[in-house]
Amino acid sequence: MRIGISIVIGSLMLAAVSAEQQAAPAGTAVVTGRVIDATSMQPIAGAVVSMGPPPATPTPGGAPPSQPPASAIKRAVTNGDGRFVFRDIPAGTYSIGATRDGYSSGAFGRKRPGGPQRSLAVADAARLTDVTIPVFRLPTITGVVRDDRGEPAVGVYVTAMRRAITGGRAELAFSSGEATDDRGHYRIAFLEPGAYVVIAQTTSQTVPVTTVERYRTAVASGTAAQMARALREGGALQVATEGLIIDGWQVTTSSRGTLMPGPNGTLYLSPLTFYGGAGSVASATVLTLGPGDDRQGIDFTLPFVAGVRVSGTVTGLDRPAANYGVQLVPAASGSLTFPFPIAYSVTDASGGFAFLGVPPGAYTARVSRVPPTGPLFIPSAPGTGAAAGREVVTMPPAESFPAMFATAQVTVGSTHVDGVSLTFQPGATLSGRFVFEGMTTPLTAAQLQRAVISVRSIFGGDSRGSGVDARPDESGSFKTNGLSPGRYLMNAGAGIPGRQWFLSSIHVGGVDASDQAVTIGTTDFTDVVVTFTDKSQMLTGSVRAAGTSTDVDATVIAFPADHKAWMANGMTTRRLAIAPTSTAGAYQLRIGIPGDYLVVAVPSEIAPDVDPEFIARFAGAATRVTIAAGETKSQALTVSRVR
Amino acid sequence: MKSHVAIALVLTAGLALHAQTRGPAAAGSATLSGRVVRTEGSAKVPVARVQVSVGLGDSSGNRIAVTDDQGRFEFAGLPAGGYLLTASRLGWVTTYYGSPRPGRPPGIRVVVADGAKASVEVPIVPGSVIAGRIIDENSQPMARLFPRLLEQRLVGNRQMLARMRLPYGIGYFERQTNDLGEFRLFGLPPGAYHLVVDPSIGANTRMTTQEEVRWALQPPGAVGPAPPQGSIAGYASMYFPGTPDPSLSRAIVVGPGEVRDGLTFRIGFVPVSRIEGTIQSTDGSPVANVRVSLDARIPQVAMEGATRLANADANGRFVFSSVAPGDYKVSARSLPRPGAEIGTVPMLWAETNLVVSGQDTLSTALTLSPASSMTGRVAFAATSMTPPSDLSTVRLQFVATDAQAGAIAGGGTMSATSYNGTVAADGTFRVAGLPPDRYNVSATWPGIRNADGAGWWLTSISLGGKDIGDAPIEVRANEEVTNVTLGFRDRIGAIEGLLADAAGKPAPEYFVLAFPVERVSWTTTSRRAVPAVHPGTDGRFRVNGLLAGQYYLAVVTAVEPDDAMDPAFLEAILPNAVRVTVGEGQAVRQDLKIGR
Lengths: 643, 596
Hints:
The complex is a heterodimer of chains A (about 650) and B (about 600). Chain A is mainly β. Chain A is about 10% helix and about 45% strand. Chain B is mainly β and about 600 residues long. In chain B, the strands form eleven sheets. In chain B, strands 39-38-41-33-36-35-34-37-40 form a nine-stranded mixed β-sheet. In chain B, strands 14, 15, 17, 20, 21 and 26 form a six-stranded mixed β-sheet that branches. Strand 3 (about 75) of chain A pairs parallel with strand 18 of chain B.
């Protein structure tokens, strides 16, 4: 009887233990260490340290690696000395990371923000007492913004725009911003290290008063759906219901900047201003920020200038082009591109548009008619008690919406520019077929339709009409919607489970558009061939440390031997391969396109930001390798001493 | 309660009034101009670059002008009418022209006739500033925290801390702390503010104790027994200057234009708990597809977004992790199967209270019982409009009264305790799955109401043929509520008249407040709660949206939006109020004269 009872209790306890084990398998090792600021070497208190299975290495063409279960991750917050302790750790390989707001996340073995991490091997009953996790203080930019009267400019949105290489050109991308406070102060924190241009941002929106009134009446009477839909189809912004009215147009600005009417239909406003460059990106100062840099005194004095009117008409439809969104974008100049609109307008019932308060400069006015995407929320009538934005309207399918575009170059001086003509032209389409080389059994229609070709403008900025995706039909044929004239790069994915397919080429008019940018005008391309193959190219090998060093912690990078032509053609990432070495120094690169490459191993603390500057630094130290189709080649490397 | 003066009334008779509402965008011949000034000592100093907006306060929209270096502005070509004027500049407190309190509507109307010119002097005050630093236990900056402003306000019929009603220009600058932990809230109207932050940290993050560190650093040969693990770290909502207890929250008082900077807001970890629960049916079997919500029971605060939700798994189990110490309510409600028509499946509910005190894990079990249902009909009584032919366009929402009070005060907890009812084409409705509570009804339907109050209004609620007036509908456990009639009419009552001073001149500087005679209706969730109104510069006022019944009408110099239903405030002004009876859909004429 006694025995019986003790067995019952024992099995209950066993059940409890096994549940606990499921949550976190108990081990015998102890891992302790410190989180430190990588620059000052000071301990970081209150950092959250996570210890768990190492991240799985993604396989080329395979499914994304699955996340480890949450129960497999242990978390601790560091004490006042920056210390953490993990106990009862089973033997195995682990990754350890640390986060603290204001710092780029740290990891064991990481040598630069966002750099590769190392795994930590833990043996049974091990006591690791000196595990250091570096975190990297993020750079900041601070300054004061004043208006033309020398008073603090309040609520001005100051943005740090990161310089990025897109399609072989330096282009600005929005990164982070902050509005000025009552003293005109701003502080942009939480930036990743990099090269930045700082702007005091103002965009204006000019809308016909008739449109505002119709919209307001429609909202009040609960009949806004039709008009909201028309505005969405025309790519127009949400209409502001209150603003300054000049000659039948209502104008408002972003960041609630001040507007004041000037003489003869001019409008005073503070235009987009670049730090160090006034109104032009070409002369803007580029700030290079490393970890922990505090860049102070990035001050602005905003001009308050009278800008003129730029107006015209959108034509080219079989009816007046009402409710279309028209944009005014600074024309590209110099080595840096600012690809964002500075002003928006909406066409009136007869297709007329106007931008008010445009400062002198060269611009492109543009309008597009592309399939609207996403749900449309309709503002509901006040007074009925319904929550705003409940009603959702289904937009027409993309196929029934052939894309059309119009652009015009505009040079603005001190007088109004009227009569700008924007005539819609149908966008050029691409059509052709998908081919699978080495295919033994034909793909089913369902398999085929998982493949996709994506066409992207090599310039970023506003995305309307600058990219399009298409999937093949059951016979493998495809046709895209129209594209605005410009330079494009293409990519394609097979997405077919069970077998790895690698993109071989996308032939467009005699050029591999996955390898170099193609100019698309107003003529359709009808014989595009997207080819996949089951063969891939690999470059493998081992990396030796430079000189007497034993540290083989490196990043291996392969780029085309003819890098000048590659950069000129849009710097396609298909000819770029980057991978960290293993702890033992082994590397493995998948090469997208056969050909001549330069391969170099750089210390892992150097960020592999492959731009013309980077190539100029490392091309001389790189090793030349020729890779044939389907070939796997081995190449030994030494870590470059170039810094 | 803020400063106020109640004034004796003398009643006079007068002529009928007709409100004039035409859009200011339409051309007219009236001119409204003026100057925006700030006070510096005894001098009035012009303020430039102030955005001045005028409008009729209806759907016709506003016109905007910007002051010049002399602070001047002008609106020419306005249609005749009574205009509301605001003056705003970033960092300054928005002026509602005529309102005695900076930054607080309503203002008074400036009446201009065709061909006439009116000129006004508009005062503006610089915004107050609350600024400081948020730091942790180690005095390290707490970045990316979002300090939110609270104020003491009426919630239902109780004073609580609630989210401050922010003018748009201030909400724009309420933002997260920077990398130094600094915050700066500016452009604030003078007043008393509380601050709250809600820090977060990943679930199951343990504190590292000194004992653990000492033990882990011992040489391998000399390892002693392991000390206990650190507790699981978490946060509660933290109130300035660093307390999880809202009753210890310290108000920060700022005068006009005052800068209170250098405030230190210190935040520490609290041991948090994991609540593991089971949902079972009355026969003890586990139930799947149940939504569980966790609400803190803090009588002093109406907090938005404080409700946490979880779904029970197939075995009826649910978990809430990182729960800070305190009193909580756990409630469960079965969800309809996907695709099932609402109301056809019996809803089940359960509720329990828990005290959480920092233990690692806390277990609870809830047993579901069937929820109640309500049936009835909607009825439309028309005087001039045609009732909707298809009554299924009417949407009903039943909201637990306390949750509604919180939602009115700025909380976001209403959705967890609101239940939708659909109406059949013939007007009958049924709402199923109502847990026991007191419910208010709101309804939406297509079509609009204009400023005169024409349009459909939910004017009466009756139960078994008996009008329940302003009382909520009581739902008890295991009891169906039947024979509810929701009556709509196309007219709503109003009180309108002229407010004159002792000399018989228009007195637009005062407020007219109408409030129900029945004291049970003195709560912010009352359907009889209407905001105070300012007469125009011609002395004409109109209190709109009044359900039939008896009201008091009082004239006051100042009233906070929430005081309009604050029992203490209403008792104080009651002796000087007059009684007015408003019939169904009736516009009652009541002129007021200030006697002294």
